Amino acid sequence: MTVPTKVRFQLYIAGDAQNSIQSLANLTTLCKQNLPGQYEIEIVDVFREPKRALEDGIFMTPTLVKLSPSPVRRIVGTLSQPSLVLQALGLQALPA
Fold this sequence. Notes:
The chain has 96 residues and is α+β, with helices and mostly antiparallel strands. It has a single domain (8-83), classed as Glutaredoxin, CATH 3.40.30. The chain is 32% helix and 25% strand. The protein has three helices and four strands. It has helices at residues 18-34, 50-55, 82-89; strands spanning 7-13, 39-45, 63-68, 73-76. A four-stranded mixed β-sheet has the order 2-1-3-4, with helices on one face. The longest helix has 17 residues, at 18-34. The mean pLDDT is 91.
């Protein structure tokens, strides 16, 4: 029996800016529809953790980082086109 690999994300946002709110909503919907029970999302607010953002090489928000499974991938923007986001992250939707 194989255990499904969880997809781990970090979403870098800028407080309650509209783009940040939209990106979180879009990512949550994408994950619930395409990766149910197989994802973890860590939210990093660059206003609260500016040093961490700089250390991680984040210069724009919102930025989504897929940490695992490898390879690590980054996307900047509101994540409003789910099929393109999945493709850019190297993920496929689960069979219906």
